[in-house]
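pasting for ref
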Amino acid sequence: MHLMKTGARALLLTLAAALLFACAGCGKKAAQPDEYGLAAEKSKLDGTDIGDDLQLVSTGRYAGLFVEDGSDKTVSDVFCIRVKNTGSSDVQYAHITLARGDERYEFDISTLPAGQTLQALELSAQTMPEKPEELTATVTTYAAFTEPLSMHDDLFTVTTTVTNNSGSDAAQVYVYYKNASGDMLLGGITYRAGVKNLAAGESQSCYTSHFVQGTSKLLFVTYAA
């Protein structure tokens, strides 16, 4: 699997360099600006439990690449939230709405493992409103994975290629991943790379423009015999 491209590396570096996230209360670690320009501003939304074992860690502003629709277009002043999965189940999908009167701000979250935190952008790239602490956050849709996330290491080797060690042919193998910075998952979006008709003992490469070796994080594998 050819998961690393020069263009992808440049894309992620641009994302990191352009991240100007004026954060409303990002917890103890965000007391000082980090390498992405993240600066803490306390808010009563910090640490709010919004349902389904999801915690709204912080709200803020974002400038950089808009990852949520895969376009990676350059944006600025986009409403951004950080959400932590405080439960024991891995989140497959959740839709979060922050609202005040007629105002609506929508966020999608996918593949958020238990105990981890991700940063998501408002889906229509709306600007962060004034006094965001007045917003009410609600989880409007939620689904957990029914089985633990697995790379199926007993069946496949996934590095820069996918190798079928199962002893049987696989009709398809999909690898799911997200971009990350340390323990922070960047973007509500989850990317997928795949190969088809992978014979027993065979290795195949696949192409994706969003994976950067050493920075993107492999999350799980699915397959069909």
